[in-house]
Design brief:
Blueprint lengths: L9 E6 L7 H14 L3 E5 L2 H7 L4 E3 L27 H12 L3 E8 L1 H24 L4 H6 L4 E6 L15 H22 L2 E6 L6 H10 L3 E3 L9 H14 L5 E6 L12 H12 L3 E5 L11 H20 L7 E6 L2 E6 H16 L3 H8 L1 H14 L13 E7 L6 H14 L3 E5 L2 H6 L3 E3 L28 H10 L4 E6 L1 H12 L11 E5 L15 H18 L5 E7 L6 H10 L3 E3 L7 H16 L4 E7 L8 H12 L4 E6 L11 H24 L4 E7 L2 E6 L3 H4 E2 L4 E2 L8 H7 L6
Helix pairs in contact: 1-10, 2-3, 3-4, 4-11, 6-7, 7-13, 7-22, 8-9, 10-19, 11-12, 12-13, 13-14, 14-22, 18-19, 20-21
The structure holds adenosine-5'-diphosphate.
Length: 742
């Protein structure tokens, strides 16, 4: 083995093109994962411009250089658009700058432009190296050592327009900004019975517009991929008129910046305003959100996803060989995936071309099945009049909540009511969960009754943790019969599932329970079978991460260890994911428990790192991590052992995790799952069958599982699924924490 073979790998990282929230988390993860593996990471400042300029625009990053950046929007290593890199001469200079530092592996974080640039660079690399050798700018040994450039691409773009990854870095945060704005506009619009036209970013991609329209409960949306039919102005006005007549006090129309009509002509927000003013005589205002969408702190999702992607990009480059094809590191169904980079870029560009060719059916197809599905769901919910003629004897579907409160319960109930009405059913709201059902607190719900429920936390219908006892089943059966309930939608957590399972199991004794029943997962604990995520978990995670940001800031003035306790019962999802997204040093999970030996090692590590100059040590403890080693115990232990070196504080976050308005992701998921539940119940009622099921998002698909399978899929003692996908992420968590000296 030659001496050079043992040199550490030199990895360059750059952010390029438009900035996006979450880029910092990706850079941090790249640096830390690389340092863990013994590689060196060089930040290339200001994107390709820094690569062309060289000098101090390419500098190694240390562990601490990327501390305290998770919560910051934008990119700490800068980004730019660089004309020089588009020219071969610029790329030749870039090659020399990289070779002088031994860099032949790059993590490029940017949009399709930046990734195309990276690919061009990679293909030219051998020629560029040969040219530098010929010029005498490098020696033969250097040329021989770096025959190829290896690339891992991460997509940083708020537009979420890249084929090959479900989400791009920044898209979720942008959705947060837009949804916050729509919520704010809705309240002022409702006060004055006004209309608002909101223009959102996204270039050729309608993702932000469509998802924010769903999350914000808007009335109409215009997206580039699916322009409205001829005469849409009249149709839009009719729809808004119907909504007003059914009780809406405001109207919101979301327009994507790339919105066009069937002829391919742009539809501007101002044009929509003119239409509304002239045809409806409504007081209409335009809000163009602009760069606000790129700004602000990254969402919890953008932090943890970018962390996973950055970590995976380093693993990719560590194992890459000169023959390796460049890979895009993306997310598919909440898991990291790697796919050849250039086909993704080409297909992404194909969508834009298809739109220009006005082949809109193809444009929607290229965006994928769930995009089309969400568009249809949005349309069905926005229309106050049913799309089918109600039957003479409508089916009666009852909606109720059960278990602890989860943000997004209202969103799910609203979607179920509106979509059920759209199918011609009668919708009933059960007030106060299963207790309300026992007492017959049931009323019909109209389209207008659920107006405004999209955005609000809490549960308008109320919820209780009660599971009807065997003695109470008779009363439950009576209530279902009295109110002629033909189908039941149960939205809630563990207790709700248990209650539904009990009704299902007792159907031989109580014929009233022989109706279709479906459970929709809604709990911040994320501990339900059959679904990667339950409604409320993302909101809780965002609330925890916001609290962690404040806690970290409060600790800046002292040398301090924080022990933060999160909810989640026997499920460590919130603890692990907030640890990843919030930059914790150590997490304690109920799945792993806490041991004395482990605590001793933690204390030693804590002391060593404070001695080395650390100012903050953040630990997160899932509430049920251990019955005896409580949060208070941990604090006392650390305090005692820390002596004068550091002090210790605890923060038990408690019910702020259950409160709060649902995040955009939770609203969209709630809507999607509710739509499938209504489909399920409708199908059963049409067939005259009475299956019991629970629904979930598993491997990206909405799937229903028979209720009777529930015990086989769960650890009933610990009340969590037998398989928990996110436990695999512990390795990434460990790689983000400072290595321990043994
Ligand atoms: P985004 O990456 O967000 O799509 P741009 O398209 O502006 O943003 O690309 C960012 C930078 O990437 C450009 O300024 C340029 O330096 C580089 N780049 C883009 N396309 C190419 C290309 N075809 N060849 C070389 N460099 C490119």
């Amino acid at each position: 083995m030659s001496e050079t073979d043992t040199l550490p790998l030199q990895i360059g990282v750059l952010t390029s093109g438009g900035d996006a929230q979450g880029m910092n988390a990706a850079v941090r993860a790249v640096v830390r994962a690389a340092l863990h593996a013994g590689a060196t990471v060089h930040a290339i400042y200001e994107g390709y411009q820094g690569m062309v300029d060289g000098g101090d625009r390419i500098r190694p990053l240390s562990w601490d250089d990327v501390g305290s950046i998770l919560h910051r929007g934008g990119t700490m290593i800068g980004t730019a658009r660089c004309l020089a890199f588009r020219e071969r001469t610029g790329r030749l200079r870039a090659t020399l700058n990289l070779l002088q530092r031994g860099i032949d592996r790059l993590v490029v974080i940017g949009g399709d432009g930046s990734l195309t640039g990276a690919d061009t660079f990679r293909r030219e690399w051998p020629d560029l190296v040969a040219e530098l050798l010929q010029q005498g700018a490098i020696d033969a040994d250097t040329a021989a050592r770096h025959p190829a450039l290896m690339i891992a691409g991460l997509v940083g773009s708020i537009d979420n327009d890249m084929v090959g990854t479900d989400m791009t870095i920044g898209a979720d945060s942008a959705l947060h900004r837009i949804t916050e704005a729509i919520d704010a506009l809705t309240s002022t619009a409702a006060s004055h019975q006004r209309s608002f036209v909101v223009e959102v970013m996204g270039r050729h991609c309608g993702y932000l517009a469509l998802m924010s329209a769903i999350a914000g409960g808007a009335d109409y949306v215009l997206i580039p991929e699916n322009p409205p039919p001829e005469g849409w102005e009249a149709q839009m006005c009719e729809l808004l008129r119907n909504g007003r007549a059914a009780g809406r006090r405001d109207s919101i129309v979301v327009v994507a910046e790339g919105a066009i009509d069937r002829q391919g002509q742009p539809i501007s927000a101002d044009y929509v305003r003119q239409v509304l003013e002239s045809r409806l005589g409504e007081d209409t205002r335009v809000t163009i959100l602009g760069h606000v969408q790129r700004g602000g702190t990254p969402s919890a999702f953008d932090r943890w996803m970018s962390t996973l992607l950055g970590h995976a990009a380093v693993q990719e480059l560590l194992t890459a060989t000169p023959e390796s094809e460049p890979q895009l590191i993306g997310m598919r169904y909440n898991r990291v995936c790697r796919i050849p980079l250039m086909p993704c870029v080409q297909q992404t560009r194909a969508v834009a071309e298809v739109i220009t060719r006005r082949d809109y059916a193809q444009a929607m197809a290229l965006r994928g099945g769930s995009f089309t599905e969400m568009f249809q769901i949005f349309q069905a919910m926005a229309e106050a009049l049913p799309s089918v003629a109600p039957p003479a004897q409508p089916q009666r579907i009852a909606v109720l909540h059960g278990g602890g409160l989860a943000p997004g319960m209202n969103t799910a109930a609203r979607a179920a009511v509106r979509l059920g009405l759209d199918r011609g059913h009668t919708l009933l709201g059960v007030h106060g969960g299963f207790e309300g059902l026992l007492n017959g607190r049931i009323s019909t719900l109209s389209w207008g009754d659920v107006e405004g429920w999209t955005a609000t936390g809490g549960a308008e219908l109320g919820t209780t943790r009660q599971v009807p006892s065997v003695e109470q089943l008779y009363s439950v059966a009576r209530a279902l019969e009295t109110h002629h309930v033909n189908g039941l939608l149960v939205i809630g957590g563990w207790m709700a599932y248990e209650a539904a399972y009990r009704l299902y199991s007792e159907r031989d004794r109580y014929p009233a329970f022989k109706i279709p029943i479906i459970c929709l997962p809604a709990t911040i604990d994320n501990n339900l079978p059959g679904s990667d995520l339950s409604i409320g978990a993302d909101t809780a995670l965002n609330d925890i991460v916001a609290a962690l940001d404040r806690i970290k800031q409060s600790a800046m003035a002292a040398r301090r260890c924080f022990v933060v306790e999160t909810m989640g019962r026997h499920c460590g999802y919130l603890a692990l994911m907030s640890g990843l997204a919030g930059g914790a040093e150590r997490i304690y999970l109920p799945e792993e428990g806490i041991t004395l030996k482990g605590l001793q090692a933690d204390v030693e590590h804590m002391i060593a790192s404070f001695r080395e100059g650390r100012r903050l040590y953040l630990t997160i403890r899932g509430e049920y991590a251990n019955d005896h080693y409580t949060t208070d115990f941990l604090c006392r232990l650390f305090e005692e052992e820390g002596g004068d070196l550091f002090d210790v504080r605890q923060a038990v976050l408690g019910h702020i995790q259950q409160g709060g308005n649902p995040s955009p992701f939770d609203r969209v998921l709630a809507t999607r799952l509710a739509a499938h539940c209504i489909d399920f119940l409708t199908g059963e009622l049409e067939r005259g069958t009475a299956a019991g099921a629970f629904i979930g998002l598993a491997e990206g698909k909405v799937t229903t599982f028979p209720l009777k399978q529930m015990p086989d899929m769960t650890d009933t003692r610990c009340r969590r699924p037998l398989h928990q996908w996110w436990l695999d992420l512990r390795a990434v968590m460990a790689a983000m924490a400072r290595p321990r000296q043994h």
